[in-house]
Design a protein that fits this description.
With 189 residues, the chain is an alpha+beta fold. The termini are far apart. This is SnoaL-like domain-containing protein.
Length: 189
């Protein structure tokens, strides 16, 4: 059974400012023996004794916290914050419509750099989430967050309503954002 968890922006947004997100809210377990470096690829794991049991609702809420933190990192222009590593997989991929000037990326480093360049060229650009829906797969090793956003300032004074789908996987290092797809909204709201 899939769990869907709905929330409006007034209820899910947490301000982490410039402090690192508490590791207990990012990872399944602090005492896991699976904290070894796995190189440049995300390795999916199965649920086992290394991860404590969590309900699908708990995992859905975690997905929303991770999605919110990812959006906060993009909005803050803090491209060197350690939460990039804690939230986004090294082999992260993003897909955007070909007509959308926001760059697609292959890997976390490329995504951060292309986001930095894009935001520097478009200082009025901003993302404001208005709704999040999380879906946990029955395996409890992956899931998605559907985010409805208001996208401001590209170009000013345009505001678009867009949808972003963030895919999470349980890896040897905990939950990571591994893929993101953006669906561009209409020309104006």
């Amino acid at each position: 059974m899939n769990v869907r968890s709905n929330s409006s922006s007034q209820h899910f947004h947490e301000d982490y400012s410039d402090s690192a997100m508490p590791s207990s809210s990012l990872h399944q377990s602090e005492s896991t023996s699976m904290e070894t470096d796995i190189g440049s690829t995300t390795t999916t794991t199965t649920k086992d004794d290394a991860y404590p049991e969590q309900t699908e609702e708990d995992i859905a809420q975690l997905f929303k916290r991770l999605a919110t933190r990812h959006i906060d990192l993009v909005r803050s222009n803090n491209w060197t914050h350690p939460d990039w590593t804690a939230v986004v997989a090294e082999d992260f991929r993003t897909f955007v419509p070909s007509a959308w000037p926001y760059p697609a990326a292959d890997g976390r480093a490329e995504y951060i750099e292309s986001s930095r360049v894009f935001k520097a060229a478009n200082p009025a650009y901003d993302l404001v989430p208005t709704r999040m829906d999380a879906v946990v797969d029955p395996s409890q090793t992956e899931g998605r967050v559907w985010v409805t956003l208001h996208v401001y300032g590209h170009p000013p004074p345009l505001v678009r309503e867009s949808v972003c789908i963030m895919h999470f996987q349980l890896t040897r290092r905990g939950w990571r954002l591994v893929r993101q797809e953006a669906l561009r909204g209409p020309q104006e709201m």
